[in-house]
Structure formats: C-alpha cells, structure tokens
C-alpha cells in the first residue's frame, strides 16, 4: 500500500550556538544544568522597557553556517517579530527572521537549503507534581539563547535519506565550531515535515505534518517511517491527514497529536522596531568566509590524496574533527621520529578503537612501534622480497598502474618463500616502500 505513495519530506533543524552570552542580552548562553530561573534579566524575561542588542558573534556564526552550506548571503537582512502566545515565550513574540534571512538557497547532499536564519530560543516547560497535583513549570534560563534555524526544501524522499542528511549537517556544525549540537541536551533539535503524494503526481500535497521532540538521527528515521505508514493508512481510507504538529514518543515508538499547525500569516510577522536592519559589505563577508575551517568533504579528499588512504578509511577518520586532527598529528610525529606508514597508523586508530582522549599521538606511535618490532625484516627476507618482485613483473606493473589489490598476491608469494616465518604486515609495508621508491 505504501508503495502507491511517495514521501515528501522537508526538515527544520534548530541549533543553539555556543556563544558566551545570549542573543540579545548579557546573560550567559550555557544555561544547561543551572538552577531554574537563575540565568535571566529584564531583556530575556521580556519586561517592559527592556531593549534587545544583537550578539555580533552569533550573527557572524549564522552567516558562517550559511556559507558552509553553500548558501547565498544577501547583503541586506533584518530581524522580525513572530507573534504568538505560549507560556514559554515571555514577550508574547519571538525575535526571529521572516522575509530577509541571513542565508538563502543553499545545498547539502543534493538537498536544497531554503534558508538559514537567526532567532532567540524560548523558555523550557517542565511537567512536574507540586503538592500532589500535576502542573507545568517554566524555566526561563534558556530564553534568549542564540538559535539558528536551518530549513530545507521538500527534496527528501525517504527516512534514510533524511538520516544521512542530518548526520552530515551535524558534522559540519561541529567542524566549524559554532555549537556542540548535543541532541541529548537539546542544543540540536530535529523536526521533519512529512506528507505523501501518489507516485507520478506533481506538486506538493495539500497538507503536511511536523514532528517534534526528536533527539537522535535514528529516532528521526523511525518517526518519519511511522508517519509515512500512518498517512498511507489514512489516504487509503479516503481521508486527508490533518495538518498538525505531533510529538515523538520514543518509548512507544509512535507520534501523538500536539496542536494544529499554524500558517506563517497566523504569526503576524512584522519588522523588529528595536533592531536596525543589517547591511553587509563584501569585505565583511570575505573575512567571515576566510575564517571557515576545512570542511569534512574537503578534508576527506585531502587525506585520500596526501596519505594514500582509501575513501572508506578517510571517511571514518574524519567523522569527528578530533579524530582527524589526532591522526594528522600522529602522522606528523611519525615522519619525524618513527617512519611508520600512514596506513598502519590509520588502521590502529580505526580497528584498535584507540581512545584518543587517553592516548596521546606519541604514545600511540610507541605502541605501534613496539608491536612492529616483534619480527623484523632481515637481509635474507629482503632478498626473498626482491626475488618475488623480480619474478612477478606483471603484478608489479599492475600495482604501479593503480591496482593496489595485487599487493596481497605479492605478500602471499613472499610468505610462501619464507615458509610463513615473517610478519605479513611488515612484508606488505616493505613491498609498498620498495615499489614506490623505484
């Protein structure tokens, strides 16, 4: 039944920035774990007469993320008031961006990025029991924390495609260092918008459902899969799924209705009168762009090229920036003192699951060296290697033309000659060394 329909999925992702202070006041932005309502001031509490002052670093980081996502950066932008009543919104409106965001028309993994805009976070609702009665408490410590929203085009066609996109976005955010993007703490929140249309139909369906309360990539995938089945069941009955916001219950593995979904006009957006529009010069944007670090895909390509590693190994090593930096530091030290191959260093980090927080690159290299010194290539074994290379000119030529898989054939020939009495890994390294030198 679900094969009759095609999922139309867009994503909204909110990311708290790790600036020192909040978006429009001097209160600290690292609110997590503080005593409730101890990290507030008249501005983030929305008290009468309090005026917002934008956080320059937060604005620059929002633009930097837009650049990292291949967005256009308009030279003119402004803040707007998004008006709605909810208990965790003390002013009765949220300072956000509507028609002039900081970044537009980007792309990541062939998924269109509609916009990347800046806003302030809300307070946090806590459901509790007080004097034996169920109630909802409000903690305003989070109110006013800098929040970037990334909105995609409805280009995603499966839950797995959504999961892969979110994982790559998370990686980029951490690489440029603007947020820890810790989903357990709520500093990165994932909100899929899901609808179905019949296969072959064009245009967008006349409804969409947004799902909130998702704090992992796998839960995002499960929530989307659940909604796809739910929508298909309703459509088969001739019903159109209700346009609404739903929550994800990770324990039950289901979504549940929260409230009807608002349209943009329901928010009565209008320009924020207390904050002047922002105009960028080309020089200012150039400075921000130059401060961007090497991004994950570029790093993968460079590691493949510079260290002769496979795409698979390079992708694993660069998954976390800390691991990539650790690997490169180990290679640098090895070049000076140890002369170990980059492949061996990479294999240890990947396959031995080295705890890089407890083992320094120097300690890692000493461990590898100690292990590799168990068996050494002596003069006789070197003669066997040279003999095998001379006897197999085609395999040697194949290796030099890029067919690196033949190396294991040559290793096998040497091991047969030495009756298995030498170390295969060291033989492999020696063959590679000899063939690349000559």
Automatic annotation (TrEMBL):
Keywords: ATP-binding, Ligase, Nucleotide-binding, Protein biosynthesis
Keyword ATP-binding attached: yes
Statement: the UniProt record of this protein carries the keyword Metal-binding: no
Reaction equations catalysed: L-glutamyl-tRNA(Gln) + L-glutamine + ATP + H2O = L-glutaminyl-tRNA(Gln) + L-glutamate + ADP + phosphate + H(+); L-aspartyl-tRNA(Asn) + L-glutamine + ATP + H2O = L-asparaginyl-tRNA(Asn) + L-glutamate + ADP + phosphate + 2 H(+)
GO biological process: glutaminyl-tRNAGln biosynthesis via transamidation; translation
Record EC number: 6.3.5.-
Coiled coil: none
PROSITE patterns: GATB
Single GO MF descriptor: ATP binding
SUPFAM superfamilies: GatB/YqeY motif, Glutamine synthetase/guanido kinase
Segments forming domain Asn/Gln amidotransferase: 325-435
Protein family (similarity comment): Belongs to the GatB/GatE family. GatB subfamily.
Classification via NCBIfam families: gatB (TIGR00133), PRK05477.1-2 (NF004012), PRK05477.1-4 (NF004014)
Described function: Allows the formation of correctly charged Asn-tRNA(Asn) or Gln-tRNA(Gln) through the transamidation of misacylated Asp-tRNA(Asn) or Glu-tRNA(Gln) in organisms which lack either or both of asparaginyl-tRNA or glutaminyl-tRNA synthetases. The reaction takes place in the presence of glutamine and ATP through an activated phospho-Asp-tRNA(Asn) or phospho-Glu-tRNA(Gln).
Subunit and interaction comment: Heterotrimer of A, B and C subunits.
Name of the protein described by the UniProt record: Aspartyl/glutamyl-tRNA(Asn/Gln) amidotransferase subunit B
